[in-house]
Amino acid sequence: MSTVATSGGGGLLPERHPTGDFFVCDLFDAAPKDDLGSMEHPIFSLSTRPDRRVLAYSHNGTDIEVIPSVKGRATIHDKDILIYCISQLMAAVNAGRAISRRLQIKAHDLLVATNRDTSGDAYARLREAFERLAGTRITTNLATGDVETTRGFGLIESWEIVRKSRGGRMVSVTVTLSEWLFRAVLAKSVLTLSRDYFRLRKPLERRIYELARKHCGRQPLWRVSVAVLHKKSGSTAPVRVFRAALRRMIAENHLPDYSLAEESGDMIAVQPRRPRAASGPVLSPEALDAARALMPGADVHALAAEWRGVWEARGRTRLTAPDKAFLGWVRARA
Q: Whole-model pTM?
């Protein structure tokens, strides 16, 4: 679990499925994955109401136009479906299994994995999310897998309910991802997210976390102006309202893995949270991914806990490269 400050802030959703539904195939090995393209650029709406505005965005040579359907642009909460699909595909890749753009998923598994309730209303909302994802059209020159083309596509190409319960709820659904997203999976242009991402209530919190994960994943500090962060977030609020929301976020301090601070010059500093001293050597998400590739099907979190136990038993020796030490230990077991 990530280190998240919860004192003084009631902004995190509860863990709705703390026991984890262990029968869910690949749920724990399929750590949440997000594609780099949609993490960097504001494709998804942050609105909680139907957003039918056309988005035109340009930044550093990348041009994006997002055209919603009559049901509105796909929201950042709708994106949970794509994250789940990408995660399942990456788990299959790491296990050496063949993958395709078309995959069949169980609706209940998706709801559990993304920390949603499993009421009848949840299934209805899930169907609406599929409709917005399929109806939202994108034209962009954004490269995925080092291939830059200008083209138009939907976030998902199609979806189909293949099985319903007697009460009419979707049980199983087939999703065909866009070639653009599938290319990102093949190129492994994805990053691991904290599972606490799905506990963030507010759309802007999710978007700021995505940007923090994208820009601060491999560096100790990311400084960005409020104006640039406003643009990259896709927020339609005035800058002064956006700045006030950032200040609330800083005060509540419950983003997974990262903390924010306001600096002079209308700047925001983003940095990884310091791990708790009692947690032992901290492993990067990339190291856990590499361990999955070395031991397909293994519970890498259990492996990490076992390795930390060995480290403890050997006297807690100082490690200058915990990732390297852990992966060497995994290779010896594989």
A: 0.76
